[in-house]
Description:
The structure holds 2 protein chains of 2 kinds. Chain A is about 0% helix and about 50% strand. Chain A is built from no helices and 11 strands. Chain B is mainly beta. Chain B has no helices and 9 strands. In chain B, strands 1-9-8-3-4 form a 5-stranded mixed beta sheet, with no helix packed on it. A 4-stranded antiparallel beta sheet of chain B has the order 2-7-6-5, with no helix packed on it. In chain B, a hairpin with a 5-residue loop joins strand 6 and strand 7. The N and C termini of chain B lie far apart (about 35 Å). Classes of the chains: A mainly beta, B mainly beta.
Amino acid sequence: DTGVSQDPRHKITKRGQNVTFRCDPISEHNRLYWYRQTLGQGPEFLTYFQNEAQLEKSRLLSDRFSAERPKGSFSTLEIQRTEQGDSAMYLCASSTNRVPNSPLHFGNGTRLTVT
Amino acid sequence: DAKTTQPTSMDCAEGRAANLPCNHSTISGNEYVYWYRQIHSQGPQYIIHGLKNNETNEMASLIITEDRKSSTLILPHATLRDTAVYYCIVRPPLEAGNNRKLIWGLGTSLAVNP
């Protein structure tokens, strides 16, 4: 199965620490998205890349958050100085612009717990 | 804010059809209707999408009303593994160059019972 892969699946960290998550999209997909989901809520958009360019960022993405996709393949999401409110599931998705209205395909997320 | 409204929860007997409604009364002419589902502790899974014609694939059927203000996702023979939260989302075509993000509501929690 060559679906979207996220690592790690779970991360527990202490408040104030930095964390980094990785996403490997479906190989032929040039679009990559990060979403955040808290318990009982739908996913919330964080940011979007087309190839290596970060084209859109949500206001939810404070200056403690940074995302990169340096070679247009995998992406990383870093959270600096984590806070308890950052506890959530972080979801990555990818899609292609070669198929009109191609749906997003999601990974199984990284669950972050900040203690 | 999400542009769709869905019932909070539904039940369905195993082997029967599950019909999940969605209202999207403010949908624009070029916006598509997408359905995803999310099984506990997993990422959302794409099911189906459509513009105005009914659509069917190996997972489900999508029925969109003629005025496009509502739609129904049909799982023809529900199994226990279909127990999940089902999200209905409207989205403009990517080629429009705007609003690439999906805006999610709370979805419908479907319980398939033996």
